[in-house]
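[09:14] KT: can someone run the structure on this one? pasting the chain below
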Amino acid sequence: MAASEAVPLAKTGGLADVAGALPGVLQAAGADVTVVLPAYRAINRERFGLQPAGWSITVPVGNREVSVEILTTKLAGAVPVYLPCADAYFDRDGLYGTAAGDFLDNAERFAFFARAVLAIAAHLGAPAVLHCHDWQTALAPAFLRADAARYPTLAATKTVLTIHNLAYQGLFWNADWHLLILDRRYYNPEQLEFYGKINYLKAGMVFADALTTVSRKYAEEIQTEEFGHGLAGVLRARRRALTGILNGVDYREWSPEHDPHIAARYSANDLAGKAACKADLQRLFGLPVEPKRPLLGIVSRLAAQKGFDLLAEALPVLLRRKLQLVVLGSGDAQYQDLLAALGRRFAKQVGVRIAFDNTIAHQIEAGADMFLMPSRYEPCGLNQIYSLRYGTIPVVRATGGLDDTISEFEPAAGTGTGFKFSDYSVPALLDCLGRALSCYRRPAQWRILMQNAMAADFSWARSAQQYLQLYRGLLGR
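[09:31] RB: done, structure tokens below
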């Protein structure tokens, strides 16, 4: 399995959670798994026990050969990890860039990394399956097929590419083509060319034996022009190779029964601790401690994708409903400024932290009554799944993984786990929140809803079995 980040070693987003958790679950289910990850400066070598593997590889990049030492460690004490130690590419602050923008040599960095993945795989002995994640590793399946003479021992290896977010494709100007060491004939609209640029993700989409994405609904959506980000046609052409497999959650970290970050532990059978968590969260954000006032939480990257334009328009109306809102996140300056201004204007109702803080994220999951995710699109989403386990009711837009994981609460039947709206509009959001608030005012109904939510199971075990089934199908087993 090749990825550009994996917890606990290196993380910028949800990809790291998947790449950190899935290998161990696959291994526990009987697979022999190895992970390849860049040796970033950010990885604490002493803390994570990185050691020289005792061998090196030589990787072609452009017109030169790069020789690099390989480091090794283990994920969760069981899964071997190999890390190419190329200081010229990875000994720097940040994984993909800094606050000023992406690194200017990312085309070269991740062309190198994709070749390094193949060199490590060949050294270790040809794997049955090479599973790559996102654009940073998507060149590996392309190199394996389009430059097959360089990798004769990997000829039988099957390849899988998982698309975590189609919006991030690895686009680079065509003058970087020489870095790939591929015949120029592959630079065409059917393969690696994309509106005059090289598209790394498209390369993997064209050449991988199987494609997956992180929810069933998102697999459907990305084949449409609205959500396809210019690649809908490629995905429709490869629809028989495309599968949606929902991400799982590590309940060892995200469960109120044993969460070390929250004010009080609680469970579906004993919810008393949730009130203490709510009071603690209100104090943390400087809001009045009012047990009966509805408290909404948001933990998010602050970006247009996440629906903050919708939220900004709806908030003045929402706040007239006497609710409270806490927001934790960072991202686009316009949304950071907007939320900070709202926090100042409605200081007794809105608390804002422009940052990412894992402890506060856990405290919001435990202390809020509802979790708001009005996303324009959402490949999978994890916070709505965390929220279920904490009895913090998700209010979401019915898109991608949000639609797959949350079922609308039906008061008469006592079924469902949250509230959903379809139209990307302020009226639809307000109507959905109105249903949620109406239910909140009926404590007996709300308790049923909380228990439904907390009983939902989105552990990795189910998803891992789907990946194993996919691998076996590729291998004709």
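[09:33] KT: thanks! The mean pLDDT is 95.
[09:34] RB: yep, looked fine to me
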